Amino acid sequence: MKKYICKNCGYRVKNNVRYCPECGAEIQEYKSGGFKSNKILDKIKTIKKRYILCSLIVVIAVIIFIVIYNNKYNIFIRNYKNDNTDAIRSNYDNYSDKDIEKVYDYLSRQAVKIKDNYVNEKTTYEDTKSQLNKIGISCKTGKTLTDYINCVNEVEKLHNSREAFKIAEDFYSKNNYEKAIENYKKVIDSDGNYTESQAKIEALTPNVAQNFYDKAKNAYDKEDYSSALNYIDTAIKYSDKSDYEEMKQMCVDANEKAIADKAEADRQKKLLVPGKEISTTKFDIEYQGAGFDTRVLPEKTSGAYSYKECPNDSIFIDMRFYIANKSDYNANIDLVKNFKATYGSKNYNSCSQWYCEIGNTSLRNIYSSINIEPLKKVVYHLVVTLPYEAINTDESINITFKLDGQEQLLEFR
Description:
The protein is α+β, with helices and mostly antiparallel strands. Helices cover 49% and strands 19% of the residues.
């Protein structure tokens, strides 16, 4: 550092000192302005240093900005904001796991924000779906974003809940309280309409229950027990009153009896008993009876006659009918469909058909082309072949079939 000599006492003083610290005399260089010029030079040097430093800082800042602006994350952000999802997906191949983790963190936060906006009714359902779809498309193929999936599901549930509330309100305005309750129950607790929905369910339920109870009672009085049972079951869904349970038991008992009575009536209608008359569009039919036999014989057995003999170790059940053609020239006698014989646990689905004209000794096969002449009467044999053991057992034998379209039942044993 430059020093000056005090002219009064010869003491060496430092630069920028006005008075000598030894004798107190004023330093001439300070008085003449020598120090001042040095100070200006120092200031210029300081300014130059600061300028260089500022320039260096600006250059460094520019470099940092360029590096940050062009890093993978910021490129992703720009592409996302510009809806350039194709570029996002193609760039994943160049991302490290850490890069993907950072991107997925951003997408997760966006998904939650979009969902929250919908929950708070700041966006429409359509806009929310579109924004969430953008996030879904921006994900890497094969890598699930859990927050995205959860947000999509929550938005869908809330949307369905809000739609259910609208539907419920519409039914409520039309006094269709059953349907209103059904839809109010679909409103979820995260829906702002939940409290109102629960209040309306509580208010409407007793009225709906009573309405169905009244319908059940009315149907019961009209002996429509099946409808009565449906109505009372619905009433019980809304209320557990003891009166409803009592009505249900009455309906169950009456309905079971009605079903049993109908089944028996149907059985009696189908049941073949000797002398039963069956009238169809083309034929008058009379059932004669059925029995075990080893041969099927014609109507007349004097002199020479033809017959059908049972195979060895087998036995026929021969069902006999009189059939008269009402006057139709196209009265085909191939009458039997859906044949089924049940012997114990075994089923037999095939049968044989033969016929014989009254007073005739010839037994003939029946084919699909065989017709009976108008007003003519024949003996008709419907035959099933069973194992011979069937004669000597107690196993039940039941036969069902359609005879010219009408269901028949033979409870042979």
